[in-house]
UniProtKB/TrEMBL annotation:
It comes from Allacma fusca. Pfam families: ELO. Its EC number is 2.3.1.199. The chain crosses the membrane at residues 38-57, 69-88, 118-139, 146-163, 169-188, 200-222, 242-264. PROSITE patterns: ELO. This is Elongation of very long chain fatty acids protein. One of its GO terms (biological process) is sphingolipid biosynthetic process. Keywords: Fatty acid biosynthesis, Fatty acid metabolism, Lipid biosynthesis, Lipid metabolism, Membrane, Transferase, Transmembrane, Transmembrane helix. It comes from the Eukaryota. Belongs to the ELO family. It is found in: Membrane. It is a multi-pass membrane protein.
């Protein structure tokens, strides 16, 4: 039986969709399914290019790229801020104003608006665009850690598979991610111009990243409970639940380890202590 995708609302009491945000949900999901091999190829090429370019830069001078970094980080910060403004009203309204709000926000399409679905799709596409973060690290000859490229590749899988199924949990994950990115890219835009930012800011952003991973794992555990132990309807595919549990769980452990080593273990001074993730 062919999957039936929901038809979101154009207008609602918490947010109204603009004309450019109204789109064919089923067509978008089917396009992602059709382009899955291309997505996997992009990930493979990304990993290969990381290895090749990292070796090639060993004998090269580090590049400054200050102007490019300012433009790159500023545009991503603005996009993330707009994405948060457009996606936050829906889960906030459902969780705070509706009975069984957490369940409805995670497992159902009730009160769903086109604006949320559109900016969730933009979020998926942006995960590929943000692979450019790694290029700046390599060309500037900064330290490229495992957490950085592991997060970049796995979050593409997580969001891509999620949108293929039009997973309702996206309405919770996307605004969290946009919120953190708005502050993270603003931080990096300032740092690229050598503007002094208090260390407590970077510490707060990293702590918020860890919180996001904890919440993501928690949503997966809650979804698994609904699917396995109750008779309540949940539109989340079991594959996505297990994938989310594994990926968010691994993020939580890796980010917590990074947080400890960056802020509480004596080490050489670094340019920044925030892991630039997407």
């Amino acid at each position: 039986m062919e999957k039936v995708w929901p038809a979101p609302n154009v207008t609602s009491e918490f947010i109204n969709a603009y004309n450019f945000e109204i789109f064919n949900v089923a067509s978008a999901c089917k396009s992602l399914i059709k382009c899955r091999p291309l997505m996997l190829t992009v990930i493979g090429c990304y990993l290969l290019s990381v290895v090749i370019s990292h070796r090639a830069m060993k004998s090269a001078r580090p590049m400054e790229l200050r102007s490019s970094l300012l433009i790159w980080n500023t545009l991503l910060a603005i996009m993330s801020a707009i994405g948060f403004i457009r996606t936050f009203p829906e889960p906030f309204h459902i969780i705070t104003q509706q009975p069984s709000g957490v369940y409805k926000a995670i497992c159902t399409y009730e009160f769903h608006n086109y604006a949320t679905g559109f900016w969730a799709l933009i979020s998926v596409i942006s995960k590929i665009v943000e692979l450019g973060d790694t290029a700046f690290i390599i060309f500037r000859k900064q330290k490229l850690i495992f957490l950085h490229w592991y997060h970049h590749t796995t979050v593409i899988l997580l969001t891509w598979f999620g949108y293929e199924a039009y997973d309702p949990v996206f309405r919770c994950f996307v605004p969290m991610n946009y919120f953190i990115h708005a502050w993270m890219y603003t931080y990096y835009a300032l740092k690229s111009q050598k503007i002094s930012v208090p260390s407590v800011v970077s510490m707060a952003i990293t702590a918020t990243q860890i919180t996001q991973m904890f919440v993501g794992a928690g949503l997966s555990i809650y979804s698994l409970h609904i699917l396995m132990n109750t008779n309540d309807l949940c539109h989340r595919p079991l594959r996505n639940v297990f994938l989310g549990l594994f990926i968010f769980g691994s993020y939580f452990v890796l980010f917590l380890n990074y947080f400890f080593h960056a802020y509480f273990r004596p080490s050489k001074k670094t340019t920044s202590k925030i892991v630039k993730t997407n």
